[in-house]
Amino acid sequence: MIEPRNGRGIQNPRLKGLVFLVLCALPAFGSTLLWWRGISLVPLAAYGMVSGLAFVLYWRDKRKARADSWRTPEKILHAVELAGGWPGALLAQQVFRHKTRKVSYQLVFWIIVLLHQVFWIDQLFIGAGRFSLF
Question: Where are the alpha helices (DSSP H) in the chain?
Answer without folding.
Answer: 13-36, 42-66, 74-80, 86-96, 103-121
